Recover the amino acids of this structure.
């Protein structure tokens, strides 16, 4: 498993367990998580806290938006960008 | 809201000249100068002496102060922009002092609402203020920028509260009247109706906070001030974001001047705004919508409901029409302002309603109240229950939005109403997510459920307007009761 | 970059759209002028289905406060009124026309003559409920009364009450009311049909040109029609149709030693040239088979300075006495049911003018009018020719 996949699976597990609260849910990589009604803006705040704890990355509040972090792909890309920087 | 057909026509004419005749590299400067003139011109007359000159000048001063505080910490980016920034400063100084020369013009030709103070005194005071700014900027440069920025945000909040609380703003007006030799007993909360201030304050707080988190790009003084006072969005928003605004601003030199596509889109937008505001909203205002007066006179429950619905529609068409005009005018000048409304009354839950009503304000509150507050509560050890965090964060966010309209109990209750509504909806949707997913496969049930949810959501929003509209708590409570047949 | 979303828009296209819009607007205006649809449009109304019908005719200068306004579109006025709905078998419909006193100046609807009459709960001998509709309108001229009576006949009244006073009679006042001037076609028809001694080509009639008939030319009338529907919502919620001031100046009770009235500077003999009895007769004829009870309405009678010369600010004694005698004689001559109530209300019950009553005044007035109505409610009323002498109270 490369780094990207590790991040992706960690996030997928966190989101289905903690945010969607349905671990049986089969979350797609490009599925709109907020726009699809699976989680809300509060979940984005929870996501921000999780990313800070897990990857030691601080995503500013005004970046925790539906436009920027709606899909698993967007989230992974963002974390990789910040890890690389 | 004081935009009429005459000022709209002036804006549109200016836009055509700007797009048709002006060399691309002067467009940015034209927007700065035009917007500066516009904020003096649009400010309605105020009773305290010189107020309708001083307040627009104070808007400029706040913008300059905001820029000083939000310059990026690295020295390099400061020096490259220095020359243009000095020029901007001179331009703003000349314009502000120049506006004071309206003192010598006949009232019919004045650009300011009433007679401004003497240009000489104005110049002296502005130079003094400038010195003070530079000195404090020097001192601030040595201090921890995070703290300075927090101080700046606090300052903006304090000014906001002082102006938006009836008691405090009356006190300020009394002081003002005393200083200018007017009768302080005549002071009223509406004395200092500072045009555009609510929007200016929230734009400033956005840049201060985004400098703290490092999100704000480096802006020249010209760019920063233009963002804060951009004329089409000055009166009634929308509240753009600085990083988005400067993208358009920096593209202006290469923009096609008389671009049919841009003008066509802008024209349609303005026409739609005119229709919404001056045909629909103004018709509804003529006896079809609830007011403090007819709410107190009402004798029929059904009639009261009709007036309340009339008000709900009027408020939407008034504000959405305004936004259309602002966006259309912005487009004429080459700036695409953000959308503010997305058919809010057709939404089927309160959360999506708030994602489509006054969107730029609700996003602002999400970025600067909801998310940071939720986050900091989530980080507390031991972590409070998520339900409690959501409740606190929603209520704090919505009461902020409420109090932004004016600091009073009724706006507070309106905020509370929506905060609780959003909280309840989150609890509901957390528990019914699975059920909703299954509902998607039953189109008829889904349709019926959506219709029912839309109806409930609309009633909730419309009932909330009672608190938003009626300024007196007693009248609002009585009207609320009467809508349900109590207290007749 | 703030470029338009669609790059297919060209200036030529914008020009075409603007051109077409202009042509369409022009055509619509011409069509509108050709069709002259204002009267038809007036019949379209939100009242009496979405909104309750108005209890009195639209009239008012300040719609923002009174939730009411004056307009010249007679069908729109009628359509907004509660009388404009089907009459059921249990209703005995009474149409009450008249001036501002009848309309109820400074009075809420329950205190007007119509309101007080309805409060008496009158019934016909065969058990129908008497419903009185206030169709008064605040201008003093018989011509305006007949114009509105003529329009209201389609609402199928069973009885018409027509309070009048001398101020409505001067011949040269007949073409004075704006409502009359703005409805030349209606008024000219009345002049022709009843051979009225009024000039059908009088310069005061507003005769619209073709351009005046376009949408642009009619914008004021269109706006009034629309506004009437709009303020209906506030009226429905509040029941307010008049901005009644908390305080107002009372009618004068002391006068100069002055006997002038209208164009007369001193006492003279009034004739049917001066007073428009022909217009009164036209109203009687316009009512067709429906009986009309003519009422000489109560007025303020002063005891103050120079009250030996004048009854009140309106009338010197010589003019009013002659008028009253002429009216009584004419009613008898034509066999018109007639009720003379001129001095029946105590002076304290008048408000700002000699013909505007208080709530109490209207209550007293209503009781007397109710007595006058009673013969018409009998099992087999002689509707056409009740004995007028029996109705004259004094």
């Amino acid at each position: 498993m490369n780094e990207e996949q590790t991040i992706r699976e960690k996030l997928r597990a966190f989101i289905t367990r903690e945010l969607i609260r349905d671990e049986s849910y089969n979350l797609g990589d490009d599925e709109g998580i907020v726009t699809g009604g699976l989680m809300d803006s509060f979940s984005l705040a929870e996501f921000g806290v999780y990313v800070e704890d897990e990857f030691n990355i601080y995503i500013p509040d005004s970046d925790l938006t539906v436009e920027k972090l709606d899909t698993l792909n967007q989230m992974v890309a963002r974390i990789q960008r910040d890890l690389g920087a | 809201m004081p935009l009429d057909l005459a000022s709209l026509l002036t804006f549109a004419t200016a836009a055509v000249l700007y797009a048709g005749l002006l060399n691309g590299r002067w467009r940015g400067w034209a927007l700065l100068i035009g917007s500066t003139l516009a904020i003096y011109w649009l400010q309605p007359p105020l009773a305290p002496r010189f107020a309708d000159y001083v307040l627009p000048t104070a808007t400029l001063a706040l913008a300059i102060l905001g820029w000083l505080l939000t310059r990026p910490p690295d020295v390099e980016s400061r020096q490259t922009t220095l020359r243009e920034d000095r020029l901007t400063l001179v331009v703003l100084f000349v314009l502000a002092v120049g506006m004071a020369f309206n003192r010598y013009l006949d009232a019919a030709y004045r650009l300011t609402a009433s007679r401004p103070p003497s240009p000489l005194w104005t110049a002296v005071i502005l130079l003094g203020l400038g010195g003070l700014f530079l000195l404090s900027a020097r001192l601030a440069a040595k201090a921890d920028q995070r703290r300075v920025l927090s101080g700046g945000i606090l300052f903006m909040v304090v000014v906001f509260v002082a102006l938006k609380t009836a008691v405090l703003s009356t006190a300020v007006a009394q002081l003002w009247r005393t200083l200018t030799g007017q009768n302080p007993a005549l002071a009223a909360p509406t004395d200092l109706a500072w045009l555009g201030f609510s929007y200016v304050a929230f734009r400033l707080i956005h840049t201060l906070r985004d400098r703290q988190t490092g999100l704000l790009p480096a802006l020249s003084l010209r760019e920063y001030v233009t963002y804060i006072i951009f004329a089409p969005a000055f009166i009634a928003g929308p509240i753009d974001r600085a990083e988005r605004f400067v993208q358009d601003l920096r593209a202006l030199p290469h923009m096609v001047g008389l671009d049919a596509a841009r003008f066509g889109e802008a024209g349609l937008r303005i026409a739609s705004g005119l229709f919404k505001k001056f045909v629909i909203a103004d018709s509804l205002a003529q006896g079809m919508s609830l007011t403090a007066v007819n709410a107190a006179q009402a004798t029929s429950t059904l009639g009261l409901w009709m007036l309340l619905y009339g008000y709900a529609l009027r408020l939407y068409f008034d504000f959405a029409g305004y936004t259309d005009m602002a966006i259309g005018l912005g487009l004429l000048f080459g700036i695409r302002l953000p959308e503010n409304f997305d058919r809010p009354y057709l939404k089927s839950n309160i959360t999506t309603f708030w994602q489509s009503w006054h969107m730029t304000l609700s996003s602002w509150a999400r970025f600067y109240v909801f998310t940071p507050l939720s986050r900091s509560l989530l980080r507390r050890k031991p972590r409070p229950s998520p339900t409690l965090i959501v409740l606190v964060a929603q209520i704090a966010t919505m009461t902020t939005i409420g109090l932004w309209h004016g600091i009073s109990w009724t706006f507070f209750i309106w905020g509370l109403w929506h905060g609780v509504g959003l909280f309840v909806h989150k609890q509901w949707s957390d528990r019914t997510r699975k059920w909703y997913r299954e509902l998607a496969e039953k189109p008829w049930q889904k349709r019926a459920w959506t219709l029912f949810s839309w109806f409930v959501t609309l009633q909730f929003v419309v009932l909330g307007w009672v608190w938003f509209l009626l300024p007196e708590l007693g009248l609002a409570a009585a009207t609320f009761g009467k809508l349900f047949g109590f207290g007749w | 970059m703030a470029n338009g979303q669609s790059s297919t828009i060209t200036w030529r296209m914008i020009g075409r759209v603007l051109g077409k819009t202009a042509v369409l607007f022009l055509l619509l205006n011409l069509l509108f002028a050709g069709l002259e649809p204002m009267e038809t449009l007036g019949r379209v109304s939100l009242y009496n289905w979405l909104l309750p019908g108005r209890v009195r005719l639209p009239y008012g200068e300040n719609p923002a406060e009174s939730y009411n306004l004056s307009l010249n579109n007679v069908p729109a006025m009628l359509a907004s009124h509660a009388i404009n709905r089907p009459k059921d078998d249990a209703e005995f419909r009474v149409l009450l026309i008249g001036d501002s006193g009848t309309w109820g100046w400074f009075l809420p609807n329950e205190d007007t003559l119509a309101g007080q009459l309805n409060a008496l709960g009158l019934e016909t001998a065969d058990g129908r409920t008497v419903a009185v509709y206030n169709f008064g309108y605040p201008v003093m001229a018989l011509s305006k009364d007949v114009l509105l009576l003529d329009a209201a006949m389609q609402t199928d009244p069973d009885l018409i009450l027509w309070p009048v006073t001398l101020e409505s009679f001067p011949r040269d006042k007949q073409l004075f009311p704006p409502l009359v001037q703005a409805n030349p076609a209606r008024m000219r028809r009345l002049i022709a049909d009843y051979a009225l001694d009024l000039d059908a080509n009088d310069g005061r009639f507003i005769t619209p040109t073709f351009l005046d008939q376009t949408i642009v030319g009619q914008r004021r009338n269109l706006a009034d029609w629309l506004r009437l529907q709009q303020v209906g919502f506030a009226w429905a919620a509040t029941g307010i149709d008049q901005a009644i001031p908390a305080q107002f100046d009372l009618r004068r009770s002391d006068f100069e030693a002055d006997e002038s009235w209208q164009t007369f500077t001193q006492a003279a003999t009034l004739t049917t040239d001066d007073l428009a009895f022909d217009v009164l007769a036209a109203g009687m004829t316009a009512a067709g088979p429906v009986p009309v009870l003519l009422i000489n309405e109560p007025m303020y009678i002063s005891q103050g300075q120079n009250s030996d010369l004048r009854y009140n600010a309106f009338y010197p004694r010589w003019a009013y006495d002659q008028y009253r005698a002429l009216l009584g004689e004419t009613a008898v001559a034509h066999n018109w049911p007639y009720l003379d109530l001129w001095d029946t209300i105590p002076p304290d019950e008048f408000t700002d003018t000699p013909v505007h009553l208080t709530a109490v005044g209207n209550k007293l007035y209503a009781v007397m009018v109710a007595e006058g109505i009673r013969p018409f409610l009998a099992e087999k009323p002689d509707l056409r020719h009740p004995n007028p002498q029996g109705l004259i109270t004094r």
About this structure: Residues 3-84 of chain A form a domain with the Non-ribosomal Peptide Synthetase Peptidyl Carrier Protein; Chain A fold (CATH 1.10.1200.10). The radius of gyration of chain A is 12 Å. Chain A has a mean pLDDT of 87.
